[in-house]
Amino acid sequence: MTVIDTAPLAVADPSKPTTVHLSGEIDIFTSAALRRRLLSTLNYSTSLLIIDLSQVSFCDAGGLAVLVGIQRRARPLGITLALSGPRPFMSRLLNLTGLGRGLPMVA
């Protein structure tokens, strides 16, 4: 799993969403690192944090738990977490688990 941020920490533009691009697999081996990275992203995120899933090739229950956990941490900070570009398998996974209703999608 690779995380690529679109804006360095010091230059986040508050008028634009913070976007994090993920690639590869989100599983038991990568979930902890992803959780740490996204938690640190909340410290400089704008009011909208978009997680781009278009390059994610696999996601297990641990990966879904990371997304839910980050959403729960973001809300009290006034940050909305949204997902972008999930591949068909990921869309099905989100819908089957009911997380598609709780995690908003953006184009």
Automatic annotation (TrEMBL):
<dbReference type="InterPro" id="IPR003658">
    <property type="entry name" value="Anti-sigma_ant"/>
</dbReference>
<protein>
    <recommendedName>
        <fullName>Anti-sigma factor antagonist</fullName>
    </recommendedName>
</protein>
<dbReference type="Pfam" id="PF01740">
    <property type="entry name" value="STAS"/>
</dbReference>
<comment type="similarity">
    <text>Belongs to the anti-sigma-factor antagonist family.</text>
</comment>
<feature type="domain" description="STAS">
    <location>
        <begin position="20"/>
        <end position="107"/>
    </location>
</feature>
<dbReference type="InterPro" id="IPR002645">
    <property type="entry name" value="STAS_dom"/>
</dbReference>
<dbReference type="InterPro" id="IPR036513">
    <property type="entry name" value="STAS_dom_sf"/>
</dbReference>
